[in-house]
Amino acid sequence: MKREIAKKLKSCKKIAVTCHLRPDGDCIGTALGLMHSLTLMGKEVSIFNIDPTPTFLSKLPGAEKIKIGKIPDGFDCAVFVETSGLERSGQDPPSTFTIHIDHHRTSEEFARLNWIEPDRSSVGEMVFELFLENGFPIDKKCATCLYAAIFSDTGGFRFSNTTPKVLKYSSLLAQAGAIPSYVSKLLLESHKKEEIFLLRKILGTVIFNGSGKIVAAFIMRSFLREFSLNLSDIETESIMNILRSIADIEVILLFKELDKGFRISLRGKGMVDVGKVAELFKGGGHPQAAGFNIELGKEEAIKKIFSKIEEIFPWVKKQE
Description:
Blueprint: H1 2-11, E1 14-19, H2 25-40, E2 44-49, E3 67-68, E4 77-81, H3 86-89, E5 97-102, E6 113-116, H4 123-134, H5 140-153, H6 164-175, H7 180-188, H8 193-203, E7 207-208, E8 214-219, H9 221-226, H10 236-244, E9 251-257, E10 262-268, H11 274-280, E11 284-286, E12 289-294, H12 298-312
Parallel strand pairs: 1-2, 1-4, 2-3, 4-5, 5-6, 8-9
Antiparallel strand pairs: 7-8, 9-10, 10-12, 11-12
Helix pairs in contact: 1-4, 2-4, 2-5, 4-5, 5-6, 5-7
């Protein structure tokens, strides 16, 4: 499949790239990496996303060129990066040739060419391998973006998806010009002071289940209004990493209030497959990172989700 995708990309002159709704570091970094490499090959490349780029990713090389909106007509090919399915991209069914690159186990094969490998750490890892094996050019900007993609989805190389191949590829990207300390600072150390005040409010909402193995926290819209912030301004992974650092925790839930209900991000530490939890609520993701929406109030949502996790993983309910 990699060879077919490489052949198609090399044959196209005008290429569109799109990410999933609420884009994260992996899909943004990968989309930008594609743009930089293909531009070096003389291609005309444009990135179209439905949702804006999170503030903490806006300084990645080329991020200012990302357009907000639907993919227009006139492209030879459209590449869907980590969208799971067409609906998850927010895009209309394109009239052009489509390529889908993803690492979600629930991913749908909706494109003409579908490259889906659930055991990969990130789409950044996959695209870098595509470049390596098929002679695509990689400059400093491309390397930086792909390194950021891998760094993002491995939690800075702390998650269980940090394989020997991930470390090898990250080393090669550093040799190609990516500066690890720069990417780390950009993704982890670029908070506004208002975000720190917000963090204090969020930590005040923390609750645990009876055994202390499940933890949840809430980002309420009133908190965001108080500090004149939007969800796109916040690097929520850093909040989850604080909760993740608590001893004995196995499941981390971050509730983000929407107009109706909540968007819930889940993280696991190895013992609980949070992807299975998300799938029960018509969401999806990976064994250690997933998400879904729920249209319930705060108390009812907590009760239902905690109960469901304890039902399918009974040991998280038990006291030590």
